[in-house]
């Protein structure tokens, strides 16, 4: 995603430097500076730069520039060798095809951007609520965003329709984190009676200059006409960044940043123009051919002893042998790429796949590293409750009805013993299974941050649904999908969360009774503490209980001694479940009052506040009663495991880069078998200094065949001080997991990997936070997720599911690369053959710079006479697609780059020299009287040789290939009638002509057929063993 620049000199328009701003609510006209338009633009060119840009990109290749100079030289009389069209027609054809292809891609891109920029939003204005396009939104506008709508620009949150005065945001398009974020409106504006009052008050927001940090914001809100004037500080909690989605209620915000100043845009790098490795290799070969051309021309002039105007002779020879560098190569390869792209789109086994960059399909055949996002790419981002473990007994998905009956019995039988708090001796007695299950379920139903919300469903309206706790209208909202899955599970076993506000919670029992709990304190989950706690008072009994849940690493030291926690956590983690440990502690009124006094005191301190608060909470977190373990699974996308298995067997190393937490990322890596069962996992300890990084790298160096898990912060430290050492170690790992990665960090890892290893990397992602990585990689694949299309629009290839990646690489990538390699070498062979014949001809006729074939023969040779059979090589395949999928090891062969190498190139050069010499010398030996006969014999033999060579190269025949061969032969025979100025038509009808051509063609082709047979017999390639 790249915002459009208004002009090339935007910096002097005052838009180059970012500055803080004062934004008046609802008054965009009161701005102090010019702000960029709120448009998304992924195009490479605009209307004026299109033609110059495309031509520049074509002629910056040595290859095309050479042909342009060649064609221009024909305007000089001394250098002219024949008709002008022999040079200009092929060049014009090449350029037209390229321009049309680029134009189609640009138009598609324009339409995609237009779709996003045309999304309609509501804007508050003095005329009431008006509709405005996303591209028409300005800094200072008051925009209304509905539930499940994308936030169109960076805004400050002013009002919400939610009763609890807050809203949830889905941010996975921005930072890759699955948990919803709680956002709070500005208190002053939330208190206003209606949204329209926002326009009646005199108020403004002061915002810091735009920057890249999506997790922080500094600003203030000021209302001038208040008495006294109101000042409120603004932080990240009051922001709504673009590319996030509103998950609850309807919100009103004031726009503070647009266009290129958006946080999401500043976190994406500009797309680079990708040039495939294959194209660079072909470019290298054409330079070698050009070198050969110069050498041959110099040799010819040297053999003339540099007589007369020899420098002109050099130019004439350069033009005469210009066929050595084939102009049709570029056209054939570009048209081949279009065919490969079409085949990918039309493959019924990977429906919905889109090719956005049709210039690099060969890259898919040579990927060494695959870097994938986690959330939404490998996983579905849907949590399912899988296991409840009580130490002595565990309940899986198939035994949930037992849990249900225990919960039911707990609430229907009369209480048979006194509450635990009043009789301490009772806790020592081993509780019955039924009461333990009930305790565990109740704890899970209470220790969370979930709010039930009621929506009208057509039958009942919102107020009525809220009053009666209508099941059909209720949805749960929380910052984490894990929490929602736990609460949904307690509902399924009979204990339902029906209501919640800031200070109380209501649960409904299986018998329909409502249990009321007062929330006394809540300790939210943080990344550092890895746990959350809540203190509640049961209104019916007055009992105060401290409930807590958290990761096993921190909870192990908090709960009472037991012998099963560690082992069972390990077992559940190995199954790929996210494990939470749930515990409780009963408090007396005195204990709670004492705690509260100390807690309030700690919160008032100015110095080391967070440390003091943590210390007070920790005084409660001792000797807690372990209730249960819960196991939740983030469901994987379909067929992720077999796909990763295929990629691993193909020699591709898979790295997972995610913005999610370390535990979650490790869990998913094991669950998806990214890390195999017998592999060790080395979790890189958090490091902040150079010495710590050094020690940790040394510890890691001692491990062998071990997967690496590292967080973004530690990674940054390692790359700062030990970039080379770290990348060297990481590249040797069978798998790498980087968690808590910022979007720009993902791109940095891709770039380093490509630079350090020199190998091709492919990046796969589904969210806006993956765009930078996708654009940086040699080959970017976007997965069309539920979270929008941002990644798939920026990618080179777009798939609907991760599992399609296997076929995209193993079948289409492999075929594209092998076919392009065969096609390019054949086109080179075709042009070298005719150049060899020209060289032999000139040598025999005293090194004269006279062309052997004139005008149409030259153009016809590389077009209608041989074009179709040669191009039909794009349909060739060595193995069926099922075999390629079954034996991914075949893909590994391609990573060495053998289909197109100096060795194969040299073999084709030798074949061309052999065949060209045989045909020319044969024609010179066998012709009798007329020079025209030489042309007839040699040209016919040349065409037949080419057609036979195509037949020799093909591995799997397709009906179109046979049609192409016959069509070309028919075209040649039919055109002989018009070629009487070059070829003696009466001579062709004689028997003498027929036997001479047959002998020459057999001598040029038969030895190669025999060699191919012997090679397949005694040294068959790997794929032939699978097809036989």
Automatic annotation (TrEMBL):
Keyword field: ATP-binding, Golgi apparatus, Lipid transport, Magnesium, Membrane, Metal-binding, Nucleotide-binding, Translocase, Transmembrane, Transmembrane helix, Transport
PROSITE patterns listed in its UniProt record: ATPASE_E1_E2 (PS00154)
Entry EC number(s): 7.6.2.1
GO molecular function: ATP binding; ATP hydrolysis activity; ATPase-coupled intramembrane lipid transporter activity; magnesium ion binding
Main location: Golgi
Entry-linked Gene3D superfamilies: Calcium-transporting ATPase, cytoplasmic domain N, Calcium-transporting ATPase, cytoplasmic transduction domain A, HAD superfamily/HAD-like
Subcellular location: Golgi apparatus, trans-Golgi network membrane; Membrane
A UniProt-annotated Pfam family: E1-E2_ATPase
GO annotation terms (biological process): endocytosis; phospholipid translocation; retrograde vesicle-mediated transport, Golgi to endoplasmic reticulum
Domain of life the protein comes from: Eukaryota
Domain P-type ATPase C-terminal intervals: 793-1020
Catalyzed reaction equations: ATP + H2O + phospholipidSide 1 = ADP + phosphate + phospholipidSide 2
UniProt membrane topology term: Multi-pass membrane protein
P-type ATPase N-terminal domain residues: 27-87
UniProt cross-references to CDD domains, sorted A to Z: P-type_ATPase_APLT_Neo1-like
P-type ATPase A domain: residues covered: 127-261
A GO CC term assigned to this protein in UniProt: trans-Golgi network
Binding site for ATP: 373-375, 483, 525, 549, 578, 658-660, 740, 746, 769-770
TM stretches of this protein: 47-69, 81-100, 280-304, 310-333, 827-847, 853-875, 905-925, 931-952, 959-979, 985-1011
Protein family: Belongs to the cation transport ATPase (P-type) (TC 3.A.3) family. Type IV subfamily.
Protein name: Phospholipid-transporting ATPase
Organism: Astyanax mexicanus (Blind cave fish)
């Amino acid at each position: 995603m790249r915002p459009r620049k208004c002009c090339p000199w935007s910096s002097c328009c005052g838009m180059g430097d970012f500055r803080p701003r004062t934004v008046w609510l609802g008054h965009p006209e009161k701005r102090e500076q010019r702000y960029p338009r709120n448009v998304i633009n992924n195009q490479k060119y605009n209307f004026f730069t299109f033609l110059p840009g495309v031509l520049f990109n074509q002629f910056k290749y040595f290859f095309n520039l050479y042909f342009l100079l060649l064609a221009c030289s024909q305007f000089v009389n001394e250098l002219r060798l024949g008709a002008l069209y022999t040079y200009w027609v092929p060049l014009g054809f090449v350029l037209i095809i390229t321009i049309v292809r680029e134009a189609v891609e640009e138009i598609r891109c324009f339409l995609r951007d237009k779709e996003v920029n045309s999304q309609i939003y509501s804007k508050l204005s003095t005329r009431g609520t008006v509709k405005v396009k996303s591209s028409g939104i300005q800094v200072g506008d008051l925009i209304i965003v509905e539930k499940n709508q994308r936030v169109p620009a960076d805004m400050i949150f002013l009002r919400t329709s939610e009763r609890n005065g807050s809203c949830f945001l889905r941010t996975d398009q921005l930072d890759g984190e699955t948990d919803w974020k709680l956002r709070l409106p500005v208190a002053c504006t939330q208190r206003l009676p209606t949204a329209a009052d926002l326009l009646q008050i005199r108020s403004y927001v002061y915002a810091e200059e735009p920057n890249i940090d999506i997790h922080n914001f500094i600003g203030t809100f000021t209302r001038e006409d208040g008495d006294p004037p109101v000042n409120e500080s603004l932080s990240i909690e009051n922001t709504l960044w673009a590319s996030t989605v509103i998950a609850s209620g309807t919100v009103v915000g004031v726009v503070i940043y647009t266009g290129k100043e958006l946080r999401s845009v500043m976190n994406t790098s500009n797309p680079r123009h990708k040039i495939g490795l294959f194209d660079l290799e072909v470019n290298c070969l054409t330079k070698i051919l050009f070198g050969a051309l110069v050498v041959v021309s110099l040799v010819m002039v040297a053999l003339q002893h540099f007589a007369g105007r020899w420098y002109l002779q050099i130019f004439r020879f350069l033009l005469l042998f210009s066929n050595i560098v084939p102009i049709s190569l570029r056209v054939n390869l570009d048209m081949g790429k279009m065919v490969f792209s079409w085949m990918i789109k039309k493959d019924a086994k990977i429906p919905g796949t889109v090719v956005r960059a049709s210039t690099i399909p060969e890259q898919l055949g040579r990927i060494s590293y695959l870097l994938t996002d986690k959330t939404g790419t490998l996983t579905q981002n849907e949590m399912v409750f899988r296991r409840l473990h009580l130490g002595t007994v565990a309940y899986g998905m198939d035994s949930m009805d037992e849990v249900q009956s225990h919960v039911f019995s707990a609430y229907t039988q009369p209480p048979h013993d006194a509450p635990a708090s009043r009789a301490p001796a009772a806790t020592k007695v081993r509780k019955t299974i039924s009461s333990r299950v009930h305790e565990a379920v109740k704890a899970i139903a209470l220790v969370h941050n979930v709010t039930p919300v009621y929506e009208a469903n057509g039958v009942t309206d919102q107020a009525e649904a809220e009053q009666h706790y209508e099941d059909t209208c209720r949805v749960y909202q929380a910052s984490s999908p894990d929490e929602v899955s736990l609460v949904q599970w307690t509902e399924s076993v009979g204990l339902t969360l029906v209501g919640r506000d800031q200070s109380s919670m209501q649960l409904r029992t299986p018998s329909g009774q409502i249990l009321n709990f007062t929330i006394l304190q809540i300790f939210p989950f943080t990344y550092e503490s890895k746990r959350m706690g809540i203190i509640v008072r049961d209104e019916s009994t007055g009992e105060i209980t401290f409930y807590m849940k958290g990761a096993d690493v921190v909870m192990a030291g908090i709960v009472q001694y037991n012998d099963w926690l560690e082992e069972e956590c390990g077992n559940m983690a190995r199954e790929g479940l996210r494990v939470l440990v749930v515990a409780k502690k009963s408090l007396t009124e005195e204990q709670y009052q004492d705690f509260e006094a100390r807690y309030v005191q700690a919160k008032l301190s100015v110095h080391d506040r967070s440390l003091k608060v943590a210390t007070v909470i920790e005084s409660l977190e001792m000797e807690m009663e372990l209730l249960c373990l819960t196991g939740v699974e983030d469901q994987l996308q379909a067929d992720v495991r077999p796909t990763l298995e295929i990629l691993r067997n193909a020699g591709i190393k898979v790295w997972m880069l995610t913005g999610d937490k370390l535990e979650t990322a490790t869990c998913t890596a094991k669950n998806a078998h990214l890390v195999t069962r017998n592999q060790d996992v080395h979790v890189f300890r958090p490091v902040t200094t150079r010495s710590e990084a050094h020690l940790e790298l040394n510890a890691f160096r001692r491990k062998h065949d071990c997967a690496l898990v590292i967080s973004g912060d530690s990674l940054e430290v390692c790359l700062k001080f030990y970039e080379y050492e770290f990348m060297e170690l990481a590249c040797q790992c069978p798998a790498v997991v980087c968690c808590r990665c910022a979007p720009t960090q993902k791109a940095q890892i891709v770039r380093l990997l490509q630079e350090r290893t020199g190998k091709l990397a492919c990046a796969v992602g589904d969210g806006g936070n993956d765009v930078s990585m996708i654009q940086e990689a040699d080959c970017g694949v976007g997965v069309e997720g539920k979270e929008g299309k941002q990644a798939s629009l920026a990618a080179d290839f777009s798939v609907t599911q991760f599992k399609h990646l296997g076929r995209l690489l193993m079948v289409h990538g492999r075929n594209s690369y092998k076919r392009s390699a065969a096609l390019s070498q054949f086109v080179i062979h075709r042009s070298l053959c005719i150049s060899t014949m020209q060289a032999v001809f000139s040598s025999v006729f005293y090194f004269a710079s006279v062309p052997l074939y004139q005008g149409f023969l030259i153009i016809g040779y590389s077009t209608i006479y041989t074009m179709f059979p040669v191009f039909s090589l794009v349909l060739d395949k060595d193995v069926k697609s099922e075999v390629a999928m079954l034996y991914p090891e075949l893909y590994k062969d391609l990573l060495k780059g053998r289909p197109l190498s100096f060795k194969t190139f040299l073999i084709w050069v030798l074949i061309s020299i052999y065949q060209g010499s045989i045909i020319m010398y044969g024609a010179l030996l066998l012709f009798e009287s007329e020079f025209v006969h030489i042309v007839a014999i040699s040209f016919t033999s040349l065409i037949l040789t080419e057609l036979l060579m195509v037949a020799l190269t093909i591995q799997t025949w397709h009906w179109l290939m046979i049609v192409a061969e016959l069509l070309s032969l028919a075209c040649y025979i039919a055109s002989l009638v018009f070629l009487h100025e070059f070829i003696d038509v009466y001579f062709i009808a004689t028997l003498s002509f027929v036997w001479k051509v047959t002998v020459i063609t057999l001598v040029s082709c038969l030895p190669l057929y025999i060699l191919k047979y012997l090679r397949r017999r005694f040294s068959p390639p790997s794929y032939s063993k699978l097809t036989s």
